[in-house]
User: Fold this.
Amino acid sequence: MTLEWKHSTDGIDWEELAALYRAAPLGEKKPLHLQKVFSNSMFKCFVYEHTKLVAAGRALADGGDCSYICDVAVLPSHQGTGVGKQVVSELVEMSYGHKKIILYAVPGKEPFYRKLGFMRMKTAMAIFENQQQQVERGYLSET
Assistant:
């Protein structure tokens, strides 16, 4: 499997990226929304096999204190091949020098991220656009 890595938003097909998130499955993310959030992220990875987008991820970072890895997605056909691990490892490497690297993940994927050195935070809290929906999906706890 020969992979091409891009770290810039130049030439990204935002419709293709939205399709990747649907297929992963990580939900519905509009192309214009993805363009905005990836463009505003300090670090990003887009992984292609031939000309097909097979994985992506990004990290919001401030250049010194905190880097926040999110939106890591891999096509189902490429899950289990190590490409997801490579995306996260690449984002961690790009985030080197930050005092903390925080990761946001789908519930149930914690064992995968533990293997990459991440530990559960005891103090993380969040406010979501739709709080109840996120409680039902397992992202938030009311206790």
Summary: The chain has a mean pLDDT of 95. Strands lie at 3-6, 43-49, 52-61, 66-74, 100-103. DSSP finds five helices and five strands in the chain. The first strand starts at residue 3 and ends at 6.
